[in-house]
Amino acid sequence: MPAPFYSELLSWYDQHAEPLPWRILPQDRIHTTPNPYYVWLSEIMLQQTQVETVIPYYNRFLSTYPTIQDLANAPLESVMKLWEGLGYYSRCRNLHQTAKQISAQNGQFPPTIEGLMRLSGVGRYTAGAIGSIAFDISAPVLDGNVIRIFARLTDLTDDVTISATKESLWDLAEAWMPQTRPGDYNQALMALGQHICTPRNPKCEMCPIMAHCLAYAHNTQSERPVKQKKSPTPHYDVVAGVIYGDDGRILIAQRPNEGLLGGLWEFAGGKQETGETMPQTLIRELQEELGITVAVDDFIVKVKHAFTHFKITLHAYACHIIAGTPQKLGVQNFAWVTLDELRKYAFGKADRLVIEALLDRKNRLF
Description:
Elements (H helix, E strand, L loop, with lengths): L5 H11 L19 H11 L4 H14 L3 H6 L2 H8 L6 H15 L8 H5 L6 H12 L8 H10 L9 H14 L5 H14 L18 H5 L16 E10 L5 E5 L10 E2 L2 E3 L6 H13 L2 E14 L4 E13 L9 E5 L11 H17 L1
Helix pairs in contact: 1-11, 2-3, 2-8, 8-11, 9-11
């Protein structure tokens, strides 16, 4: 049985659906069929990323890789560079891997939830979004927006971060899922959470399903959803070496594909241990990662950056090798490059700020 608010929600969506590069508006569906490649690409990019941030990346990707075969045939390094700055880089590696999977299947996406979930980087939520929007499958979605809406609609007092609560919300999402216009219904829920049923100061008086909301009736909107308090975000001091060779080129390293910032390039270094000075940390880390002994020269820049679960302050130093030759001990690869060539490689945000500092130093010198 569809959700009791189904008609009101879809009527609101028909009037207020925001034009997006990957979205087919309700009035255009008669003439246009969703392209599974476009839907999949947008949903992968939208994982943990806001719409406004995604739009320029989505447009650049489609301009560079108009078809999934184009994406599959591209070198991973080029795809990572195009993704640079969008974050959560495992999504990019999964994107490229899935493109190869689909390309090997004559470019056709599996038109079932089970088949979609076998693709790299596609879980229950993403499969539901792709399946409902691209293939008109009656499959639910449950992300932060939908959890918040359902928690307020039912005035849920249970902690939504607990697995059992999430599972009960999935059950509710399944029960409320309509057989007609499932893609529009799911997109309407996402849009409602983004624009109306916001985390703070929800616009209840503008909500098309306000009459069905128990939290609104009980004036508990600001208390829903219930979440356990987060632990303080840990902070780490890390150090990076801008390693200059005798010819003025710089040694950069590529991180292993697995783990944080997997596959990206970096100025090698690592986390400061208790009792170490920054230069001591750098000397130890470069010995462990690249098998080289360095002399640490001048300080370059300090940058701050926040990841999902921790924060860092990165201290970058210029240095040069005094013993050994680079080896792939704790890195996937390494390369000697000029300062201008750094732009060709995909780096994380903190390292890109170091590059900006290096370019600024160069400009001031000349």
